[in-house]
Amino acid sequence: MNQQQRGVLLGSGLFAGIQPDQIDAMLGCLNARQEHYEKNTLVWNIGDTLHACALVLSGALRAESVNASGEHLLMANHRAGALVGDVLMATPGSKSPVYVVASEDSELLFLPFHRIMSGCDDCCSWHTKLRENLVSEIAMKFWAQRQRTLYLSAKSLRQRIAMRLYDEYCRTGSLTFSLGGTREDLADFLGANRSALSREIGRMKSEGILDYYKDTFRILSLEKLSKDVG
Amino acid sequence: MNQQQRGVLLGSGLFAGIQPDQIDAMLGCLNARQEHYEKNTLVWNIGDTLHACALVLSGALRAESVNASGEHLLMANHRAGALVGDVLMATPGSKSPVYVVASEDSELLFLPFHRIMSGCDDCCSWHTKLRENLVSEIAMKFWAQRQRTLYLSAKSLRQRIAMRLYDEYCRTGSLTFSLGGTREDLADFLGANRSALSREIGRMKSEGILDYYKDTFRILSLEKLSKDVG
DNA sequence: TCCTTTTTGTTGCGCAGGCAACGAAGAGTG
DNA sequence: CACTCTTCGTTGCCTGCGCAACAAAAAGGA
User: Would you give the distance in Å from CA B195 to the centre of its chain?
Assistant: First the structure.
């Protein structure tokens, strides 16, 4: 593990609040294994049962499902610092609903789930902290999903957009921010058609509510935006 | 705690796989407190920080949020056996986005979250199991939310209905089942208008796909239904 | 550089479904 | 029983938005 990957690990939610000098001992105790995956190689498949979750040290992973019509649907993108497979492993007897591939050359750190969850014999001081972090990660993924359902249950596309932008404003505290991903990604996230999304943000721009370029948005009138949020 | 409530506790996901004769010792070790809430009394409010999650021993709880327009939106119904507030407590520094009221006279068992998560000194044999159960509960709530987003991201109401019914068929293994709740509840869950839902299931009935009465549905043609699932 | 691919803006058409309104059939309540 | 409240079915109207199609800008790739 190089210095940059170590930085990613230390900055990840799973290892938040852990002393850097304890990392090596921890990884040993947890029986963590680091592996390299080349671009477009499969990390695990649909129906697989996992024994370890993966922390992305570098590169990125893509999780996709296949529906009954055989279409491949992008479910999630996991960049450096993300923990993948944790929720799945926390669910007893579950098989993966998605397959996961490396969308770039990636370094993955595999952490056996049960080693994290069950206390080791000489209850290491950091073990409890690590467990809490793991549970936090899972809980936060729940909230992300919940937020998504809130967006999707909004009646109009206008409201969905306003909610998403307002949330991002609250999260960053800034009126200008970058959402990441393409316009199509945003449309998918909001459960809408790309052109419909473009049309609507165009309208909002002409109404002086916001301005945008690519994935960067600037809220011009927080008041008007709030009205649309509902 | 009476015998029926004890049965609810033993049947709950949190206490799955725990020996009945260990329960009393556990509850003592966990510092669990049982409390009675009369109908329509507040259990906790929006913005509250929790110190314990609640296991519903009898009665039922209702979680509602208030949007910017002041409307009260039903978020969840928790019946006997449900664990409430667990995901919230697993998220550090979070405040409740909903208020929770007893929708009937209810008995609640409050379990301090940190007592479950951190190992006690003489690492009781059941402690690890309880922790795993807690994490499983949270993970399963994640999957429920995820399933919801899958429903909501379906393009047509027809497809959403088909997905929901097909999932229930897979879950129960029966072509006839009861979904629970009113027609309006189902419409909300599917992110649709009640009359639109009625119209659509009426169409599906006339096409010989299904039959229904109130919240009970019978799949008449699994093949046709599968076509609609996509 | 040229060529291909991806991403974004724009616009017209058509329809799925939201909305409102009404009637009917329970389900409680006094 | 009379009265209220809830739930459900049905239908007409109208609009939000999906969809397809095209153009142009941007981004690689060779």
Answer: 25
Residue whose pair of structure tokens reads 């570098």 in the numeric block:
A58
pLDDT in tens, A108-120: 999 999 888 876 6
List of chain B residues whose C-beta atoms are within 8 Å of the C-beta of residue A153: 152, 188, 191
What pTM did the predictor assign? Answer: 0.92
Q: Select the residue of B123, B134, B230 nearest A119 (Cβ to Cβ).
A: B123
**Burial of A43 by CB count in 10 Å (0-12 exposed, 13-18 middle, 19+ buried)?**
buried
> How far apart are alpha carbons B172 and A197 in whole angstroms?
39
Residues 6+ away with beta carbon under 8 Å from B220: B175, B208, B209, B210, B211
Q: Is B3 on the interface with A (CB under 8 A)?
A: no
Confidence of residue A166 (pLDDT cuts 50, 70, 90): very high
Question: Rounded CA gap, A130 and A16, in Å?
Answer: 8
Length of chain A: 230
**Residue A25, pLDDT above cutoff 80:** yes
CA distance A121 to chain B (A): 9
User: How far is Cα B174 from Cα B177, in angstroms, rounded to an integer?
Assistant: 7
